Amino acid sequence: MVLRAGIVGASGFTGAELLRLLHGHPEFDVVLATGDSQAGSAVAALYPSLAAAYPDLSFESYHRGLADDRGLDVVFCGLPHGTSQQIVPDLLSGDRLVVDLGADFRLKDPALYPRWYHAEHGVPELLAHAVYGLPELFRGELAALGGSGLVATPGCYVTTATLALAPLVEAGLVETTGIVVDAASGVSGAGRPPKPNTTFCTVDEDFTAYGLLEHRHTPEIEQNLSHVAGQDVQVLFTPHLAPMNRGILATCYARPTGTVTTESVREVLRAAYENEPFVVVSDEPPSTKATLGSNAVHVTACADERTGWVVAIAALDNLTKGASGGAVQAANVALGLPETAGLPVVGLYP
Amino acid sequence: MVLRAGIVGASGFTGAELLRLLHGHPEFDVVLATGDSQAGSAVAALYPSLAAAYPDLSFESYHRGLADDRGLDVVFCGLPHGTSQQIVPDLLSGDRLVVDLGADFRLKDPALYPRWYHAEHGVPELLAHAVYGLPELFRGELAALGGSGLVATPGCYVTTATLALAPLVEAGLVETTGIVVDAASGVSGAGRPPKPNTTFCTVDEDFTAYGLLEHRHTPEIEQNLSHVAGQDVQVLFTPHLAPMNRGILATCYARPTGTVTTESVREVLRAAYENEPFVVVSDEPPSTKATLGSNAVHVTACADERTGWVVAIAALDNLTKGASGGAVQAANVALGLPETAGLPVVGLYP
Amino acid sequence: MVLRAGIVGASGFTGAELLRLLHGHPEFDVVLATGDSQAGSAVAALYPSLAAAYPDLSFESYHRGLADDRGLDVVFCGLPHGTSQQIVPDLLSGDRLVVDLGADFRLKDPALYPRWYHAEHGVPELLAHAVYGLPELFRGELAALGGSGLVATPGCYVTTATLALAPLVEAGLVETTGIVVDAASGVSGAGRPPKPNTTFCTVDEDFTAYGLLEHRHTPEIEQNLSHVAGQDVQVLFTPHLAPMNRGILATCYARPTGTVTTESVREVLRAAYENEPFVVVSDEPPSTKATLGSNAVHVTACADERTGWVVAIAALDNLTKGASGGAVQAANVALGLPETAGLPVVGLYP
Amino acid sequence: MVLRAGIVGASGFTGAELLRLLHGHPEFDVVLATGDSQAGSAVAALYPSLAAAYPDLSFESYHRGLADDRGLDVVFCGLPHGTSQQIVPDLLSGDRLVVDLGADFRLKDPALYPRWYHAEHGVPELLAHAVYGLPELFRGELAALGGSGLVATPGCYVTTATLALAPLVEAGLVETTGIVVDAASGVSGAGRPPKPNTTFCTVDEDFTAYGLLEHRHTPEIEQNLSHVAGQDVQVLFTPHLAPMNRGILATCYARPTGTVTTESVREVLRAAYENEPFVVVSDEPPSTKATLGSNAVHVTACADERTGWVVAIAALDNLTKGASGGAVQAANVALGLPETAGLPVVGLYP
Predict the structure, then answer these.
(1) ipTM of the predicted structure?
(2) Residues D107 and D207 in one domain
(3) Nearest chain D Cα to A305, which residue?
(4) Quick one: C130 and C177 in the same domain?
(5) C88 within domain boundaries
(6) What percent of chain A has pLDDT over 70?
(7) pLDDT tens for each residue of D211-256
(8) Residue C310 belongs to a domain
(9) Which domain CATH number covers B61?
(10) CATH code at position B218
């Protein structure tokens, strides 16, 4: 039985990526794509890349009850933070799966949202019900949803840093303070609307740091690592903007708790990801390009005896595994479908 | 029944793209990938993008009879020109489909190969048997192969220019002399081996013409247009190198034979491509990015009353529709499979 | 004696490029930079690339009489079309040189501005007084200004196409109808303000045509070529957007009037540019990257006996020779300074 | 009096950049450019960007005594490590300044070269005589050369990391162990010869780490920081390759020794660089693009009370300030010329 899927906030990059992935998904039929600013115009006019696949789909305006009207089994939300919390309660009123790609339901501690997003949360009581949509850490919780409820998928940097560090933290191999996550992202992470810092002439041939000490993915990385550590973990996170469309590479630094070698830390990664369909543990430094357009994550680690550091590195496509692909993967698990359904594992190269 | 597929010359970019596409193809099982210079090494070592999909596949050396030994139903050849003519006779000795992505069997007139490739052809008697693998022009001939024989797929620029111009030439709307094809390609068209003119520092932030008056795709464009015109067509072709990985845009200029309008030339394109699954006729100028990683071709045309020109433009991904995707499409037709099997129609965006 | 220079409309890319070039110019002292939307903020805040050179310069608002107040000897205007025509009369009221980089005073025929810019011209009586600021064609007229009056510098595509074709047209080697100019530009040609079609995620890895049949540089190319031909010349112009910051390459097609060879057309270019300090005639196809950041223009040509075409190609940096560098060169001539003063002839490579 | 300058190893990128800078230098006349692999061919054939400036210069082969034959006052060496140590003794036999841009004479401790470069040093006795060519740290030593002797200019990453960290280390504000330097470079840092990892199709749209734990700039960064600290400093250095031509950004992490604030660490930078002509201390995160083609360095720092880290960031152009520009600056000081002579401080933007 093919499920009826809708995308609320489909005009952004994560929406377009969902449309790309769901077109190749054997179990979903996209019957709704909302985009208030584009309402009434053809999806193919905004994204000619979708013209051959969706010749007749147009953006609609969202209104209360729309998901019921259309009989949606699953809704993906690709809305800016602060917006999905206004809509999710309505979506959840039906017996369906709601997968939120935004930031509103990711942080478990109700004190964190106001502190990092500088606004009150509208429905803090929902935070406890949201399942964090990272199957590599929360597969059981996702499966337990049984096809309905709320999934909050991780931030793109968060998936990257978490998959690099979690096995090492969980194994107690590294200290839980003093961790540094130094990461670089392609420009699509900043979204579709034109801004001074995302024009070609600003970005091309440029590399720069941004959001020093204050990036909102910081508490989310800490939440994940604290979860696997069983104690508070502290992270300093520095994001950079690289002149490319897609891709995130996180280079993470942590202090070993005891004697480690490059081989021993890699072995921990290999053991942790042995049965993961999307995680590739490699001896070579991962490259974002190897993951372009696929749901794969490439991970490695090494240990430096000389200076006393463990370095763990992960690469992925921020729009696929880092956003829409990860969301489809989480939805697959939550809906009892094969976890890899509709998800490319081959990157576009070159 | 899944067919056993092999790729001879799999270490180049068209080989890697074939591996990408065949992994998602429901009817093919890749059981052989040769690459003499890489023999013995893992496919995933050269192309980490394929690591999750082909964890155990390694490049092998080619030897006579290998296709028989492996029981191949279909072989794709991604070899440099001059090389596949040495191997294809051996491959054809079995009852199988051989799809050659190189230049050796494209030109029908035996005089053309030596003139444009500056070498004698080793098996000119095979030229008449090769079916030109452009389904939009030769669908019937491909289907008539009934699953065995030789298909020669077009050059990447050739597919682009042909699909822009053929309907206009066939309809007699434009003159058959004085046609100009001005095209730009991404760098992957130059292949994988490092060369001075394909290093990042040469290409990035550069735009340049090359192969002035002498590019080998010229006679092939003329052959296709002459075929649909029923008379000799002459084309001046100027390729350019653009700082991008993939994509070809061909902007073509032809003289109208009578009164035309932008609307009338577009209508001819729309009628010609009405039932084509991969051709999108648009009112907006096509963009290579809209076709990234997909088998789609975007086409438009306009007419300039003031200066007396018809301009026809096509865009596609040179490695997908322009090479490996087009080859799979031709193979699908020749094998009696659904023409779109395994072929993405959604481009990666952004 | 160092001249007092001002830039009106200094916040755009041509303004920033003027600031770059004038900082290295021995005869100019920049004492004014206006930018209404940025008034009050430091130049270095908008363009950190200028921080070390102009630590104390801030954008000001323009008002009537400002050029007199500051005792300006020369004013460069980097304003959008339609805007400089409102300001130039005020600037010209003093005895100074006004160099307009915009489109308002380029077209000599008063009927052309309304036809191509879809607006009435505010001061059409000034058109006859403006000297067209392309020293390679109008050096004498510029020198005759004697340091005061109005110079209208060419559009970026116009300089490129004109320098490729003018010697061939002037020598009567090619026909004056049926000329095609097919050109590609870097993204800086579209200006600084963020727009949907200039974001990194739209442009990077994309190549597309735009402004089909209607680009406003068309009549200006025709005006220049008609000037050297002594009769009306007609041109079809197709611009493309390439994923790079700077650079224009124009590939131009014209019909020979008689027998020509590649050598004979190149010889005409060599003779025409023998004493030009910024024009390099080469046997290799020009590359935009070879001109990056310099005021050089690279030109070549070839003749195709087979199809009966002459192809002429030119490359330059759209912001340097194509805009601000060309403007400084014209100002140098008009002010009686050495023509090359302050103008780099070495491109940044890589 | 104009000095006679030669470039040994002029065919590489640092050689081309030296030719660019020296063309605009008022005190140098380039009379020799060697490049063994290119001997006999025109400089303009390899670098068309230099065609207008050096129409008649050709690469020559190097031979013993060549610098004497040509009466060189100053020689810049742009040779691979291991090669300049074979030539420098010959060059030093005359009374001239030799500025080596390679790695052979940078490390003071004779044990370090074999350990990091895996080869014996041919003339270890020269190490003590070489002055380290970073004027911001060794201005006095350079000036004391009085126009003759040997200067070893820093590695590109080294200049970047040193200028970010040195004032903080020197002031005792940060601990001398546990320092992390995480940096990204444009592709020109890998040199001109085509390699698999520098082709456009490998690099474009990719971000990756390389040389994990083993990059040869590590001991050089430690040497500089140890020099200013007056004690051993240990650094973990992770370089990354970014898809751009030029530019290095180093994001450096160090533990504060006491209470610091963002304002207090910035104040230390401002005080240290108050009179430096090429160092800009900013409140905004530095951007490599702001330094493109200029000799400027942009630096900032901040302190994170929450996690206990100081972050210091520097950006520069790896070929200008990071190599050839830094070398010219050092030569200017060593020759008693104005330190800024011939060195652009305005970056090319965009």
Answers:
(1) 0.97
(2) no
(3) D213
(4) no
(5) yes
(6) 100
(7) 999 999 999 999 999 999 999 999 999 999 999 999 999 999 999 9
(8) yes
(9) 3.40.50.720
(10) 3.30.360.10
Quick one: pLDDT at residue A165? 98
Per-residue pLDDT for A1 more than 90?
no
Contact list in A for residue B282 (CB cut-off 8 A) is 48, 51
| CB spacing of C311 vs B286 below 8 angstroms | no
Answer yes or no: pTM beyond 0.90.
yes
* Domain interval for residue B232: 157-318
List chains touching B (3+ CB pairs under 8 A).
A, C, D
Minimum-distance CB partner of A205 among C201, C203, C245: C245
Which residue does chain A place closest to C202, by CA atoms? A200
D52 contacts C277? CB cut-off 8 A: yes
Let me know whether C200 and C169 are in one domain.
Answer: yes
Of B195, B196, B200, the CB nearest to D203: B200
Q: In A, which residues are within 8 Å of C188 by CB distance?
A: 201
State whether C11 and C145 are in the same domain. yes
**CA-nearest residue of chain A to B289?**
A49
Q: Catalytic: B252?
A: no
Q: Does A341 reside within a domain?
A: no
Percent of chain B predicted with pLDDT > 70: 100
D309 contacts on A by Cβ (under 8 Å): 178, 180, 236
Q: Tell me the pLDDT tens digit for each residue of A208-229.
A: 999 999 999 999 999 999 999 9
Q: How many folded domains does chain A comprise?
A: 2
Measured between beta carbons, which residues in chain D are less than 8 angstroms from residue A202?
289, 350
Q: Which residues have C-beta within 8 Å of that of residue B38, sequence separation ≥ 6?
A: B11, B46, B59
| pLDDT attached to residue B126 | 97
**pLDDT at residue B1 greater than cutoff 80:** no
In a domain, A347, yes or no: no
Check D349 against C20: CB less than 8 A apart: yes
| Residue A320 clears pLDDT 90, i.e. is over it | yes
Please indicate, yes or no, whether residues A276 and A191 belong to a single structural domain of this protein: yes
Per-residue model confidence as pLDDT tens digits over C40-55: 999 999 999 999 999 9
Is the domain of D204 the same as that of D301?
yes
Give residue-wise pLDDT tens across range D137-169.
999 999 999 999 999 999 999 999 999 999 999
Partners of chain C (3+ Cβ pairs below 8 A): A, B, D
What is the mean pLDDT of the segment spanning C176-188? Answer: 98
Is C170 in the same domain as C111?
Answer: no
* Nearest-by-Cβ selection for C344 from D24, D282, D349: D24
